[in-house]
Amino acid sequence: MPPRNQPTARQVRLGTELRRLRDAAAMTAREVAELLGSTSAQMSQMESGIAGVSEQRVRSLAAHYACADAELVDALAAMATERTRGWWEEYRGMLPASFLDLAELEHHATFLRTAATGHVPGLLQTEEYARAVFTFTDSDLPAGGLEARVAHRMGRRVVVERDGAVAYDAVLHESVLRTRVADRRVALAQLDRILRQSERPNVTVRVIPFDVDGFAGANASMLYIGGPVPRLDTAKRDAPHGGPFLDAAAQLTRYRTLFRKVESASLDPARSRDFMHCLSKEL
After folding, report:
1. CA of 170: how far to CAs of 61, 198, 282, in Å?
2. What number of other Cβ atoms are within 10 A of residue 95's Cβ?
3. pTM over 0.90
4. Which of 1, 223, 231, 274 is 20 to 30 A (C-alpha) from 77?
5. How far is 84 from 240, CA to CA, in rounded Å?
């Protein structure tokens, strides 16, 4: 397979996991290359996502590494054969690659969890809310760039609205709901959208009120993306312009724990809806 100029985060992840399997087997890239009739340079390209890898090679490598986790091997083999060119591809060259990578990861997610203490999560935002956020953080964007960002963010919502949509759990601090990124009208429309989305069978929204005791997670904004197996989950700090994708085992454990802590401080879904209905009368 020809080398890639810009591998996606998903392609890089496949290579990373193959390297982790090799490291666990205590084998060098040169040793594996000799077994495969390849070279160390080709191994490096494969493990960095620059070069593609076939399903057969994934399974061959797993066998050489004595990997007994059949579910993981099947998941990696599926990643190697997957060739989806989703709706996000129309923005390639128009938006930073991280925008497209996030949409692709969400497309393949088995579940999504988010905690928000600063802004309404992207998957719940209205167009006007998203436009206000992008305008504030990127005030020098040309009109075309701004609208492309807004359109892309609206496109991401398909993962929780399509048939067979994945489970989406969102925990929002009261400050997120009260902050007016634009004006009162936009804030009310945004709150109404969150309430309507919370009625979807796959969407759960919980709220952490200001007056809850013992909540010290003001910096806990995050997005957690479920993979086909827990080892292939992905976490990231949720912010207007994203952040690095995190996938080391220790990082994933930390973010799973962080989400549980944030969730434990929130109201249950029914009380959260009541809270938001009351808040809509105050805004």
Report:
1. 38, 9, 22
2. 17
3. yes
4. 223
5. 26
